[in-house]
Amino acid sequence: MTGDQRRMSIDGENVQLPISPKALAVHDPPKFNQGGQINSSVFAGDRDTMQNGAAEAVICNSKKLQDAMQEIGLKIKHHEDNIKFLKAQKNILDDSILDTQVALGRYQSASEPGSENKESSNRRNEEEIIERILKHDKSAAGIYCQLKTHHGPQVTHLPLLKDVMGIVALLGKVDDDNLSRLLSDYLGLETMLAVVCKTPDGIKALETYDKEGFINKSSGLYALGASIGRALDARFLVICLGNLRPYEGAFIADDPQRRLALMKPRLPNGETPPGFLGFAVNMINIDSANLYCATSTGHGLRETLFYKLFSRLQVYKTRTEMLQALTVITHGAISLDGGIIKSNGVFALGNSEVEVKFPKSSGRSNLPENYFDTESRLKELKWKRDRFLEDLHREQTLLDHAKFNFEIKKQEFVKFLAHSSSFATPQKFPAVGERSTPIS
């Protein structure tokens, strides 16, 4: 008999049993309780051990996924903060570029060939405007212009007119003829022909009344008009600078025309509306004599007269762009192709013939000494803006990538929770001694 075989007698017969050379697994015998049944606490302990191990694995994997999502979330917040900062800086640069372009645009004509001929042409243009005013022979503006034409600057020495600064149409100039027509159309003929006085005393001198309250036509501007063959018989506007509330904000730095530093309109995304060119009040060129101390309080015509007439009137390239910006238009707007919004909800439609408009600017007389420095600064501002746009595009790409990764991790986490929910639900095991339902 070999070493790996054993024989035993079963029912009187010899039976050969194979013996594995491997060590036999020895199991502890099951423990029985006093009733002779297997103790169920043994199986319960094994079950608890398995469940505890599975729960720990679930918690560990859950924490890893949550940590990964939190890390991506911090990256998203970082990129969003960077984009917010870059947009704010870009908007500041946009404002500076627009202000600089507005300033340079007033003076570029002086550097062009033939500027002297252009200046002479603009003088003729102003003379044409005066001739159109004179055609309104029975108006206050017509009387004033005729006196000024005949007497020149000495007209201000007349006691009756010493407080009069002039006519609205002649107190400002505009570079572009089309823009001049649009601004004049917006104001209307009556306002363009309005007489401008410095103080209330000037208004009192122009028109007096008798005891019954009727106009005394033998004094004031009525008598002056009659003396030169121009009987004044129509109502006319007079604007008193001393009674106007001036603009109280800041002015654009280093601007020889003292333009107002008005807040640019902003869309909900923080951008300036497409096609926005600026504010009408800053597109009027004013003679240097009237930029300062036009009133007794030291204010100039821009922050008094023209701020009263135009306020925050916005100017756009096209009617379509103007209408798209309706939500940020608060004090009316005009477009270079003829669109006019008088105020919120009030639109001017159709066409009108503009009789009197602002003269064109002469150009050379307003050329600033720092023109080329300003031009260089504009190039530098545009260069900086391009760099910010590049950074903004890069940050937006990184943000989109981070959000994409976050969505992937979130889906993984949701699937993991659904898969691991079975470990959180206690499983029912058959009691020891019970028979489990057989599977059919």
TrEMBL record:
Superkingdom of source: Eukaryota
Keywords on record: Coiled coil
Coiled-coil segments on the chain, per record: 69-96
Protein name (Swiss-Prot/TrEMBL): Protein DEFECTIVE IN MERISTEM SILENCING 3 isoform X1
Species: Nicotiana sylvestris
